[in-house]
Write a structure and sequence with these properties.
Order of helices and strands: EHEHHEHHEHHEH
Strand order of the largest sheet: 2-1-3-4-5
Number of strands: 5
Bound molecules: flavin mononucleotide
Length: 183
C-alpha cells in the first residue's frame, strides 16, 4: 500500500506490449501505483520479464483468474487502462466473452463504474471488419473511453499505427480526474 491512486494496466498481445515496462515506469513517476495484468498471449511474450515486472510493480502480474477461495492480491483500482488492446480483446470485451482475466476484469470495471480507458492497437484492415465498429460503439455506450488513434493508410497496407503510450496514460489520468474531481 503506497497511498498513491491505483492504475490497473492491462496489456494484450500486440507488439507494443513488449515495451510495457516503459509505461509502468512512467505511470509510477507520475505518482501511480501500478498493477499489471496481461492476457495469456501477452504473458507468454513477456514470460522472461515477469519476475522483473513483479519486482517493479510490487504486485503479482496477473494473467489468470484467482482460484475459488483465494484472496484478491491487488488493491482496489482507481482507473483501468487496457493498452495495447488487440482486435481480439476489444471484440471479446464488447461481446462479454470473459474467458481471460483481463477481459473479465475490464467487463466488470464498466459495471462497477470504475473509469476504464482503452487504446487499441489495430491495423486498418482489421479495423474495417464490421464487428470492430460495433464493438467500439457498444463499449462507449457502456461508459468505456476508447481512444482511437489516427490511421494514415488504407486497409491492406502494413499500417498498424505507432503506439502512443503517453496518450494512453494521459487518457487514463483524465478519466480518473473526471470522475474523482467533479466540477
Ligand atoms: C508479432 C505479433 C504481433 C501482433 N500484433 C497485433 C496487433 O498489433 N493488433 C492485434 O489486434 N493483433 C495482433 N496480433 C495478433 C494477436 O496476438 C492475436 O489475435 C491474439 O489472439 C490476441 O490475444 P489477446 O487479445 O488475448 O492478447 C499480433 C500477433 C503477433 C504474433
Amino acid at each position: 500500500m503506497t497511498g498513491d491512486p491505483v492504475l490497473y494496466l492491462l496489456g494484450t498481445g500486440a507488439q507494443p506490449v513488449l515495451n510495457i515496462t516503459v509505461a509502468v515506469e512512467r505511470a509510477q513517476a507520475d505518482g501511480w501505483q501500478v498493477c499489471l495484468g496481461l492476457t495469456p498471449t501477452a504473458a507468454r511474450w513477456l514470460h522472461p520479464y515477469l519476475p522483473g515486472l513483479e519486482a517493479l510493480t510490487g504486485s503479482p502480474v496477473r494473467s489468470h483468474y484467482k482460484l475459488p477461495g483465494q484472496d484478491d492480491v491487488w488493491p482496489t483500482a482507481d482507473v483501468v487502462l487496457l493498452a495495447p488492446a488487440t482486435f481480439n480483446t476489444v471484440n471479446r470485451w464488447a461481446l462479454g466473452l470473459t474467458d481471460s482475466f483481463v477481459v473479465g476484469y475490464a467487463a466488470e470495471a464498466l459495471g462497477r463504474g470504475i473509469p476504464t480507458v482503452a487504446l487499441p492497437c489495430v491495423n486498418a484492415a482489421l479495423a474495417a471488419h464490421p464487428q470492430y465498429a460495433r464493438s467500439v460503439e457498444t463499449l462507449r455506450g457502456a461508459g468505456a473511453h476508447i481512444v482511437l488513434p489516427e490511421t494514415a493508410t488504407a486497409p491492406g497496407q502494413d499500417d498498424t499505427p505507432e503506439f502512443d503510450w503517453a496518450l494512453a496514460l494521459s487518457s487514463a489520468y483524465a478519466a480518473y480526474n473526471a470522475t474523482s474531481r467533479p466540477v
